[in-house]
């Protein structure tokens, strides 16, 4: 998953899924063989939004409800960086939302845990401890363990 942050907000796409109808989700997809989770997120971000050359700040890893590994790669976007709908069949629209505005009911359990444990906690931490809102989430770089991929 590509988690794109800009001005304290996170990029979500609303798109059509045959089995679910219109849903909110992060841009993302499958990790190809010999590809890192971060590289896959950057590739999928470009394929789904035409966004590239964003600053990578961290990658987090978890296991989803199906037993598969899931990666959340965080990228910082500038004010000028905007996604573009690239596939008409997806009926994509893009939204910049504050973490507390994310409609959790559209997301899988691992995604909800990431939103609650990383995006929302970080937002609370910034406000409680008086960090200036630079528009970026403070993240510790988490190196991917290539043996797990």
Describe this protein's structure:
This protein has one domain: Nucleoside Triphosphate Pyrophosphohydrolase, CATH 3.90.79.10. The protein has two helices and six strands; from the N terminus they run βββαβββα. Strands 1, 2, 3, 4, 5 and 6 form a six-stranded mixed sheet that branches. Strand 4 and strand 5 form a beta hairpin. InterPro entries: NUDIX_hydrolase-like_dom_sf, NUDIX_hydrolase_dom. This is MutT/nudix family protein. GO terms for molecular function: catalytic activity.
Strand content: 25-35%
Radius of gyration: 15 Å
Low-confidence stretches: 127-149
Mean pLDDT: 82
- Discrete helix count: 2
- How many strand elements? 6
The fold-level CATH name is: Nucleoside Triphosphate Pyrophosphohydrolase
Proportion in helices: 10-25%
Largest sheet: 6 strands, mixed
- What form results from the Cα inertia axes? globular
Q: What is the number of independent domains?
A: 1
| Architecture (CATH level 2) name | Alpha-Beta Complex
Question: What is the ordering of alpha helices and beta strands?
Answer: EEEHEEEH
Assigned CATH class: Alpha Beta
Q: Tell me the structural class.
A: alpha+beta
Please name the fourth-level CATH homologous superfamily: Nucleoside Triphosphate Pyrophosphohydrolase
What is the straight-line distance between the termini? 15 Å
What's the short version?
With 149 residues, the protein is an alpha+beta fold. The protein has two helices and six strands, in the order βββαβββα.
């Amino acid at each position: 998953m590509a988690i794109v942050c800009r001005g304290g907000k996170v990029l979500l796409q609303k798109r059509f899924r045959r089995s679910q109808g219109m849903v909110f989700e992060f841009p993302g997809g499958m990790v190809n063989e010999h590809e890192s989770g971060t590289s896959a997120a950057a590739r999928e971000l470009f394929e789904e939004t035409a966004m590239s050359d964003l600053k990578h700040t961290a990658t987090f890893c978890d296991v989803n409800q199906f037993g598969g590994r899931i990666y959340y790669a965080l990228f910082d976007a500038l004010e000028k960086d905007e996604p573009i709908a690239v596939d008409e069949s997806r009926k994509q629209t893009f939204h910049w939302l504050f973490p507390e505005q994310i409609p959790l009911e559209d997301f899988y359990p691992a995604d909800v845990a990431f939103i609650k444990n990383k995006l929302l906690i970080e937002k609370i931490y910034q406000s409680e401890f008086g960090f200036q809102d630079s528009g970026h989430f403070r993240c510790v770089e988490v190196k991917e363990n290539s043996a797990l991929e």
